[in-house]
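[Q] Does anyone have a clean structure-token version of this?
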Amino acid sequence: MKSRFEKFSYLIGELSKLLHKIEGDVLEEIGLKGPHAIYFLTIAKHSEGITASELSEICGRDKADVSRTVTALVNGGFAEKITEEGKKYKSTFKLTQKGLNVAKDLRSKADSAVEYASRGVSAEDRAVFYSTLETIYSNMKKISDFGVLQNTD
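[A] Here you go.
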């Protein structure tokens, strides 16, 4: 019988793999990888543009990953880089119409996937689940930042 840790670790890992596979299945037809999905959806929410630093913070990804991804999106014609004169490192990124079309398709497929995955789960149970997951995330983040045996409060 699995311990709570083993079960938790296993299920979170497997859910992560499934999520990445689904994202990859959607994006591979246009030559991109699954992890690009979160960037499309986040940039799409910021029609005025978003900086790489903001994207890094919102998506929880390191700046090197953000840099590689936005370069791929710009090179693929999915996004454009807008640089104000004298502000090379404060450039913003916006989706092109091609990118907006991909983001719209992704949003639709993501919503359908979440709806399907939530079958048989009541709205109340989903609310409790997400609240609990956020609490677990917050606690795990403290453990990660300060160590397992440290007082994190």
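[Q] Thanks! Anything notable?
[A] The beta strands are 50-51, 79-82, 92-95.
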